[in-house]
Each structure stands twice: as C-alpha cells, then as structure tokens.
Amino acid sequence: MSHRYTATELQQSVTDxxxxxxxxxxxxxxxxEVFLEADLMGFSTHGLNRVPHNLRWLLDGDSRAQGEPxxxxxxxxxxxxxxxxxxxxxxxxxxxxxxMARVPEHxxxxxxxxxSQHIACLAAYLPRVVEAGYAVLMTCSTPAENTVSAxxxxxxxFSANPxxxxxxxxDCPLFFDISMSVTAGGYVARAQREGKAMAEPCLKNxxxxxxxxxxxxxxxxxxxxxxxxxxxxxxxxLSLLTEVLSMALGGYGRADASAAGDGEANSxxxxxxxxxxxxxxxxxxxxxxxxxxxxxxxxxxxxxxxVRFPGRRAWELRRRQLVxxxxxxxxxxxxxxxxxxxxxxxxxxxxx
Length: 352
Known about the structure:
10 helices; Ldh family oxidoreductase; 7-stranded mixed β-sheet; Ribosomal Protein S8, Chain: A, domain 1; 3-stranded antiparallel β-sheet; globular; about 40% helix; alpha+beta
C-alpha cells in the first residue's frame, strides 16, 4: 500500500482537523505547515506524527486555542515571551516572524519563550528563515522532562534538547537539527511501540548497564548524551548549554516547582542573524560555498559514499516530495484515522 500523499492535500486535511478542534483558520494553517515541513525533510517522529497529541491537548484544554503570548521583556534586539501553553508551532512562528521583521535594523535578534506547548521539529522552522536570506540558531528544552543522563550517571536529568541551525548557501543551505542525546525520545517510543531494539546501545537501564532495549527508559533508565559511554561528557556539557540558553535566560525552568506540571511544554531559544550586517551577502556565500566544497570533495575510503554537506539530503528530499508527494511513515495515517472520524474531517487518499 502506498503511503505517499500530495503535500497540498495533507496540509489542507491537517488544517481542517485543527479548525475542528477549535483553532482559528490562520493558526490551524500554521500548525499544519510546520508539521508537514518536518515530514517533507524526513523528520518523521516530530512532524505529522505529533498531530494527534496536539489535537488532544486542544480538546482537553491543555493548549490554549486563543490569546497572545505575554511580553516579559522587549529591548528591540531581544525579547522574552510567556506563551502560557499556546500551541507551540504557532508561538514559535510568531516569534521568528517578529525576529525577522526586526533583524534588518538590529542585525541579530534573539528571543526566549517559556511555557510554549510542544514545538515539535526545530528543522521545520528553518526553511522560512533561510529562504529569506538569514541564518538562524534554535534550541529548546522541556522543564518537566527528564530522560537524558549526565556522563557517568544513571539518573535521567535533562530532556533531549535539540540544536538546529541553518545558513544560506549556494545550491543548498547548511542545515541541521540534532539532539544532545545519542537518540531522541521519539525514536525510543517508536522502537518500543514496534517491539524493536534500538539501532545501537544508546540507553542505560536503572542499574547503569548500557542497553539497546527501549523499555529501559520507562523502567527508570535514561538515554545517554551524545558521545555515549566513552565520550558522553561532551554531550552532557552541550545539554547544560541548551538548558542555559532556553531556560535560564528565559528565567523559568528546573528551579521552578510549577514547571514539573508543564507536561511537554517547551522553553525555547532562537536567534536570527543577517549575514549582510557583518559582511556582504556575496562574501558570506563565498565562505559557505568553500565550506561545502571542503566537505563534499573530501577524500573517503575506497567504496565509501561521499561526505555529505549537512542539510543537503533533507533539502533535496524536501524539493522532491513537494513535487512527487510526501512518503509518510506508515503509522502516521493509522494514528490520524480515529481523529478524522471523531472530528468529521476527511483524510487524503494515497497516490497510486
């Protein structure tokens, strides 16, 4: 059975689902765009896979369908908002649009957000910024979540805390979205659901033994930071960096007792940079082209694939799937079907 669908039909169906769950049309469209963008680039655990969660939060009142974020600080080149559980993709899009509107004046605009309902895939926000000619750095954390251990420890302390970055290039941007843990929680949950082992031993059980069993996480174990059992001190340090940027700068996080009840709500750090504020756009692109050439022309072992420039594969997949249709992970439509029936919204038919 085909799992390929046209991007426009997917986006419209998901927009209609969110409208049926109580969002206004413009906000529903933003959520649909962000979730679809993730699947366009192959981030299948944090794209349309997240739609059922967000529908449930809206219907249960865990997400606010209406209202605006509260402005806690605003100095032009920086701002801090309390989203108070507004839908994450909509709040982050608003923050990025605000930053992009200000960056021609300031060159660099930085923002933090607190209590934003789960924002899903960071990579999904990058194309809009990089296509406008800007570079963007983002990270987020989940104050109520503890899944990732510190190096040498067993106790889960941090959330997976991705870092994402994009900068304009020649034929494709530099582009990546990586968690500060060996794997993300979404992949652990998928493996457990499907009764599969992890692709590598990336977890610790509650006795501190390294394992590939995804059930270890639910039994008091943890995901190891980047670097794993031998070099995880690097990932653990980066986990702390992301929590400082997203929580400490925003003034809300693990020190607040109320944060333990925030569920999957995120703290967010984002920074939009105009390369033209530092040098000419032409100079910047020349440097980017040189970096891309260094990577892609690097020597490899005989028979090995060429070195990939970060982002090329996702960018080319996005272009292809916009034309040929989006190849969804098989479980996504299965999970959307009950919501389609409940809310009376038709889902698209797969392409032949």
